[in-house]
Amino acid sequence: MTLTEKLLARASGKARVEPGENVWVKTDVLLTHDVCGPGTIGVFKREFGADAKVWDPRKIVIIPDHYIFTADSLSNRNVDILREFVREQGIPYFYDVIDDPQGSWRFDASQGQLRRQYGSRYAGVCHTALPEKGHARPGEILFGTDSHTCMAGAFGLFATGIGNTDAGFILGTGKLLIKVPETMRFWLEGTLAPGVMAKDVILHLIGEIGFDGATYRAMQYEGPGAVALGMDDRMTITNMAIEAGGKNGVFPADATTFAYVDQRTRANGTKQDYEPVELDAEQKFVFDRVFDLSKLEPTVACHPDPGNRKLAKELGHIGLDRAYIGSCTGGKTSDFVAFARVVQGRKVKIDTFGVPATPQVVAELRAQQIGGESVWNIIEQAGVQLTENASCAACLGGPQDTFGRLNTPMKCISATNRNFPGRMGSKQSEVFLASPYTVAASALTGRITDPREFLPS
Ligand code: SF4
């Protein structure tokens, strides 16, 4: 069996499963956030009763992250609905924006967007926060009310996005009926050349198969090139499985995975035991191809979809109005460090916004230094508007006052993961997806730029 088949077989109590088979699986973690949480709670209460109790409070993780730093009162209210539900159900893993469990959340626009406006438990973007806080463990089943839940597959688990109705059902029962997907294997060899990042890998792969090329399929990564990737890189790759229509993305768990997971579960007091699944000698794939990472170049997904692949060096004629670095895909510490290496000692030419994915990323950017200067200062000194208010921000547009939102038609290069029309705000805007290196180089020139022009060869 493939990794996904093994994970689903175990969670459904079967010796083996076949692609296309429908199986009831037990949930290890259910994730929800401020956008879908209130709707999920509504479904749960409607179907199971106003006084119903969730199946297991310790397996529910609630992370407000989407529409947080906005004066939009309905968005603020969504966070309050989550808090009331957590209180009622005794859910321990709620990463609230404020510290007062009886309080209510109001964003204070008069303080501006740049300086921190959250309490001590706030965790930032759910998919980045989930592993940081020790909730992504090898061998488990993780459902989340968000399409990029597939990112957690980097840790050798089955992770996929579901709708509010399914999530409401899980709240009541802890189970879900799942059709076992076919698996596509991407065998990675070689090492990335200077100036090329994991984001270029996934943009290349989606360009190969198309933005619907993995529809309802598992995308499994193996080979020496996969083993050599760090956890941040693996997360970038599995995050975008859904941009090819994939049901899930998955890497086999290995020593790199265990080191990351054990450190996070210990530091956060989350569940420390887990049982990884091993690769079988016999696996059946619906697609099986080798990719040489050393051949890849800085890659861009052009407007209007993540499969519209070009090389950065071919796009120098495209002028830009904005650059953006942030999100679950492109807002990790390693993403900002790469960005800083390009902009250090230089000034951006266009409006450039930076949104760290989590408060921990903010802390790491302040602590980590390049050439005696903190990464945070390097980016600020380059003229980037860098906020401490870690969140999804303009990755998905959001209310009009969202930091970095494309409120007028413009061309934006972005380290995020999705570029369908209107994704970051104005429907007339054009969004170009790229690596943090390419976003940084393009911010410096005001046109799409191959970052190797600014990096030592
Ligand atoms: S950062 Fe963007 S892609 Fe990630 S969860 Fe938030 S809105 Fe979704």
Highlighted features:
Aconitase, domain 3; 2 domains; five-stranded parallel β-sheet; 14 helices; binds iron/sulfur cluster; 457 residues; single chain; alpha/beta
Walk me through the structure:
By secondary structure, this protein is of the alpha/beta class. Helix content is 30%, strand content 18%. It is built from 14 helices and 20 strands. The strands form six sheets. It has a five-stranded parallel beta sheet with strand order 4-3-2-5-6, covered by helices on one side. Strands 18-15-14-19-20 form a five-stranded parallel beta sheet. A four-stranded parallel beta sheet has the order 10-9-8-11. A hairpin with a 2-residue loop joins strand 16 (369-370) and strand 17. The longest helix is centred in the first third of the chain and has 17 residues, at 73-89. Iron/sulfur cluster is lined by residues 66, 125-127, 146, 148, 327-328, 392, 395-396, 416-417.
